[in-house]
Structure formats: structure tokens, C-alpha cells
Amino acid sequence: MPTVQQIDPIVQKIEQQLKAAEARGIHLKVSDSKLDDDWLYVVVVPKQAGVRASDHAQLMSEIERNLRADGDERVLLVPALDD
């Protein structure tokens, strides 16, 4: 379960993986994060128009698996559209 001290390092891991995905043409960014009921919710939005929903969902699922493999449990990436 994430603690307040772990939020920034976990978000940085996510941002690094999102940056790496840009080489595959998937342009997403973290827009918000919130610790609630022992879960860390990280909102991910497109950086630009044209990101396919399937790419968005697939990448977020991949990142969640990578986080769990690294021992970061109870982290949920939430897809959203930027206002």
C-alpha cells in the first residue's frame, strides 16, 4: 500500500514510462494523483489530440503491471480527457 512519501517516486516512474511510450506514438501525461483508502489514483490524459483510446488503455495496463512487478501495489491509473 502506498504511503504519502511514496507518491512522488511512483508518479515519477509512471512519467518515465509515459515518456518512453512517446517513441511508439502514444503521447500521454499525468495530470493528477490522489491517495485515498490506501490506493494511489493517478489520472492520465492525452498530451495531444489523436491518442486512440485503445492505446491509452493498453499502455496504462502495461504500466500498472510494471509497477506491481516492482512491488508498487495498490496503484490505479485512471484514464481521462484533459479539459
How would you summarize the topology of this molecule?
Elements: H1 4-21, E1 28-36, E2 39-46, H2 53-69, E3 75-79
Parallel strand pairs: 2-3
Antiparallel strand pairs: 1-2
List keywords for this structure.
27% strand, alpha+beta
Structure description:
- With 83 residues, this protein is of the alpha+beta class.
- The model has no long low-confidence stretch (mean pLDDT 93).
- Strand 1 (28-36) and strand 2 (39-46) form a beta hairpin.
- The chain has helices spanning 4-21, 53-69; strands at residues 28-36, 39-46, 75-79.
What's this model, at a glance?
The protein has helices at residues 4-21, 53-69; strands at 28-36, 39-46, 75-79.
Strand content: 25-35%
Q: Give the H and E element order.
A: HEEHE
Question: How many β strands by DSSP?
Answer: 3
The overall pLDDT average reads 93
Principal-axis shape:
globular
Largest β-sheet summary: 3 strands, mixed
Span between termini: 30 Å
Percentage of helical residues?
A: 40-55%
Supply the helix-strand structural class.
alpha+beta
Q: Evaluate the radius of gyration.
A: 12 Å
Identify low-pLDDT runs.
none
